[in-house]
Amino acid sequence: MATLEEVIFNIQQLYDNGRQRSVEELNAYLHSFQRSSAAWELTLNFLLTEKYDENKINVILFFAQTLRYKVKYDIVQFKDMLGDDVDDKLYNNILTIISNYSQSAKLLDSIKIQLIISLIYSLKYVKKENVLISTIESLQQIDNSNNNTTTTGFSNFDNNLLLTFLKILPEEITTISIDQDDEADKNSDSFLLENIRIPVMNYIVSLINSPNQNANNNISILQVLKNWALEFTLEELIHLENNTIVNYILAQVYNSNPVDDLSRFEAALEVLSIIIIESKELIQLGKEDIILQLIDSIYSINDKVLKPLLISYSETEDLDLLEIIIKFIVDCCESWEILIVKQPVFFEKLLQIAIDLTFPETRIVNYQELDFRGYFFKFWCDLQTSCGMKRFESSKPILAPIYDQLFSRCFAMVEFPLDSFEELSDKDIFLDYRYNISDFLKSVFKMLTCNKFLNICLTKLNEQNQPWQHYEAIVFILKKTAIEIPSYECKILPEIIINICDLTSIEQINMSYLNSINLLLAYLSEWTNKNFEKSLETQLLFLFKQLEMKDILLLNDSNVLISSSNAFMNICIDCGDKLAPFIEQLISFYVNIEKLLVENTESDENDLQSKKDLSLGIASVICSIKNDEQYVVVLQQFLESKINSILTYDSNNDTKNLSESLNILESIFTQINPRDEGLIHKNHLLDPNSKIIENIYINVLKPVYLKNLNNQVIIEDICHILVEWILHLHFFLEPILKDILDLTYTSFKSHKYSVLLVLSAKIMDIYSIDDKAIYPASLINEYVPLVWQFIAKQHESFQGFFINNKLGESSNIELMKFGDLINDYTLFINDTLIYFPLEFFQEIQLSQLIVRFLLTVNKISDYDISCLSLRTLEDLFSWGLSSPPISCEKFVSTPTSIKNAVMNLIQELYVDTFKSLFSVLLLVDDTDSIEDDNNEVKYDCVECFCKFVEVIQSYEKIDYIIEDGVSKILQLMGENIMKETETKKFIHGCYIAGKYKDYRKLARMVNSFSDWYKRKYNQRG
Fold it and tell me: Which pLDDT belongs to residue 600?
């Protein structure tokens, strides 16, 4: 057992540059001490007897932190150490410690805060009534004693214990867990904030009226008010001591000097913001007159304080100050939005303040401002939405000029700088701002009407001799609102398109501006289909000209290359029927562009994306050809060059170009669908696609596949093509379907490529459908059993691989080498449970192997895989309940055979299942996690645990295995853990919660137990 001297020595070593042990070793020792039972006695004795000494600050702070930790987490140890009926003793000891240390004027805030938090957490164990009131009185007496006074006028607010207690109390008391089954917690009503809010505010009023005040004192009071203002309505605060509280807050805003004392100014505005936010309740109660009284105060603050500060901002560039002001006005606007839309004239001044802060009339000083100014977007969107409601429609004409003013100012805010960005971070902020402004622009569009909005844009486009940034900003705004433009708008938009698609100046257009135009055209493709006579030819000629511009290709300006190709693709998809008569010219154009792209020596993935987009666009137009004979001729003509490229590159063993050609072929087949879906019930072999694809498969893809079986890149590319075929053409592939199944199985048997599982899953998805309204009975009867045999063999193949390579016994590092494969196989299990549940559970040995696999991989360090396996395991066990999982569409209620199969699985594997789930629950580190990944794993594990208990409980014959399984696993963790009170409560609670079907309580118990275990045995917490 550690001694006090040893602990102090290790603490001092931690801060000694000449330390004899590593920091890690010292921390491990100290954390181990904090978890031990001995820490209680040593900590209390030290803090009760040791005087405050500045030379021992680190030691005192450590013991103060230890006390907080022990009171919060290890109260059971305290009871075991001192016996029953000691709850008041802990509270009194902490109060004594606080009293002793507070006598020092140099007491560190960090130590004081740790002790106050300890006191707060001890409150729930005190048996006296009105414990909060008595605590306040005790702390006030200590404060008075330290300041040699019996009044509430304090000479030293900074060391005021009661203020610190009141500031921390609302924050910490919400984290105190209350268990009504716990004897200590039955006193919980005695420390509700509701019971002390009036005495607290009376105390604050007495401090406000105290003559001993300075800036620091006021900050302390404001910090307390910030946490307690939420406990009052605005009406209550106004009537409290003749409005002393609200007047005091307003006075702090007026009297603080933000340049020298920003903290006080910020604290005052934060409290005022909280009061304003809470005032929304008065609107619902019809007490708007109280709010209207406050508006005058806000206007006065703006005129006397905020406006002068904003005028001086151009000189100070104080971003912190600007953000504080903006957040305050945003809170006002958002809180009173309903009042504003009801009485827009009354709030005209507030709206003008908001306009000036959203889009200042002068250019912004610093790009970082954009982060704050964008805070207003939500308010403007909400206000426009409210104007669209029938009850507020009369306000729209009044508010429309406001949005007109906003719109006229926003152009400058989204313009690129005339020179380059000074910092890369400035560019990131600017681009984020442009991304976030989308909804705001749509709201402006709706408020101004389409005609006015487009007219303003056209007028600005017609302005002469402006830099490209001016025009790009207009096109950017049009792009963000393109989806809102109705198809019947055929007057102004065609003029805009003619203006921006000017062929005479295209070669002089800045590339960023050109890219924006292309993006706009892509967004307008649906509108173009409805108004093709107005602008389709103009748009295509503009795009063709770009794609023929060698300068773009030689410069390899990937943005323009991709955006022009993408715009062409979108137009082809949406306007295919209009372009079908011109397919010959389009293919000729495509061939020329393809040659230029090939000639580009800097060819890269951007060129490939461009080729894919162009190919997809042409394929979409081909599919719009009505005549089957012409369709076949054109499609074969278009495919011929692609197939020749594949065969040529294959013979030359050119993987890069072969992969690129296969990618282009895949993009084409995303558009190929059955010519007539009805043929599936007549003669599916009559579809012209069937013969074309059969020839490509037999003569091209299969030979290339077999030749490149060891080349994962090529196999993946071909599998992606097969997935597209299956997705779009289903049983129209019937002539080659069995061969595809056989090829997929044999190749997966020898090569565990993840993509083969993706292909297998798509086969299962499409060919497990047994609805005779979709497919004819003859095909269903032949292929559904065949596909199940294929799926079962894929499972057996993977399980053989997993077992033979002993992956179940492998380290996490070894498992992670197969991360993608494990992830896709787990998804494959999921799909099997959805599409073939009956067949799956009939395979007893296979289903056991799969459960064992899931129990192994749920501990993997990849959070996505771990969560996926836990959810899959939960779904699998859910088949033991009367109602099947929500993902099931085959059964209304679970078949008896499946329920029996699940019961047998549980009886066979319940110990292994509990062991696996506990290993995740008790070992995953979810404390102080930067990301939410660990918490998500824990959440999914708790859900799986509860579902497992629920399913077991549904079988009355085997419900005993809950307690049996949990006990066996906990025994494996050591004999000591079985003696713990927490363990006994948990084991019994699992059974009781399951018996009474209270699975929320079970989840809470599981979380509580795992947290307790990790604090005690794994980490400090």
Answer: 56
**What's at 1019, amino acid-wise?**
Q
The Cα–Cα gap between 1018 and 1012 comes to 10
Angle between helices 492-500 and 532-548 (to 10 degrees): 10
822-836 tens-digit pLDDT: 999 999 999 999 999
pLDDT in tens, 923-979: 766 544 434 556 788 899 999 999 999 999 898 888 889 888 988 888 887 767 777
d(CA 118, CA 133): 17
Q: What is the CA radius of gyration of the chain?
A: 36
The secondary element (H helix, E strand) that includes residue 993 is: helix 981-995
Residue whose C-alpha is closest to residue 396's, from 449, 332, 455, 335: 449
Give me 462's structure tokens: 């017609």
DSSP calls for 398-434: HHHHHHHHHHHHHHHHTSPPSS--SSHHHHHHHHHHH
Q: Residue 881 — φ and ψ, nearest 5°? A: -90, 165
What angle do helix axes 262-278 and 215-228 make, rounded to 10 degrees?
20
Distances (CA, A) of 852 to 260, 789, 875, 958: 66, 22, 15, 20
Tokens of 681: 């019930």
Q: What sign for the dihedral angle of Cα 653, 654, 659, 660?
A: negative
How far apart CA 270 and CA 264 sit, in angstroms, is 10
Cα 39 → chain centroid:
40
How far, in whole angstroms, is CA 446 from its chain's centroid?
Answer: 29
pLDDT in tens, 479-506: 999 999 999 999 999 999 999 998 888 8
Encoding tokens for residue 38? Answer: 């001995």
CA 632 – CA 692 distance, rounded (Å): 8
Distance CA 589, CA 89 (A): 89
Please give the Cα distance from 1002 to 993 (Å, whole number). 6
Tokens, residue 951: 């399913």
Tokens matching residue 357: 């802060």
In eight-state DSSP terms, residue 624 is: T
Rounded Cα gap, residues 659 and 304, in angstroms: 69
SS (H, E, C) 829-888: HHHHHHHCHHHHHHCHHHHHHHHHHHHHHCCCCCHHHHHHHHHHHHHHHHCCCCCCCCCC
On the 0-12 / 13-18 / 19+ scale of CB atoms within 10 A, 30 is buried
Q: Phi-psi category of 130—alpha, beta or left, where left has phi over 0 and alpha has psi -120 to 50?
A: left
| Closest to 917 (Cα-Cα) out of 938, 934, 931 | 938
Question: What are the residues whose beta carbons fall under 8 Å from the beta carbon of 110, sequence distance 6 or more?
Answer: 61
Per-residue tokens: 336 = 């009173």
CA 668 – CA 620 distance, rounded (Å) = 8
Residues sharing a CB contact under 8 Å with residue 332, sequence separation 6 or more, in sequence order: 273, 276, 298, 350
Burial of 565 (0-12, 13-18, 19+ CB in 10 A): buried
Region 416-425: mean pLDDT is 89
What is the DSSP-derived secondary structure letter of residue 302?
I
Query: Whose CA is closest to 514, among 471, 480, 460?
Result: 471
Count of positions (residues) in the chain: 1021
pLDDT given for residue 83 in this prediction: 58
Q: Is 260 exposed, middle or buried, given 0-12, 13-18 or 19+ CB atoms closer than 10 A? A: exposed
SS3 call for 174 = coil
3: burial class by Cβ within 10 Å (0-12, 13-18, 19+)?
A: exposed
Torsion angle (degrees, nearest 10) of CA 1015, 1016, 1019, 1021: 30
Q: Where are the domains of the chain?
A: 4-178+188-214+223-232, 233-335, 345-448, 860-885+896-1021
Cβ pair 514, 474 in contact under 8 A:
no
CA 239 to chain centre: 43
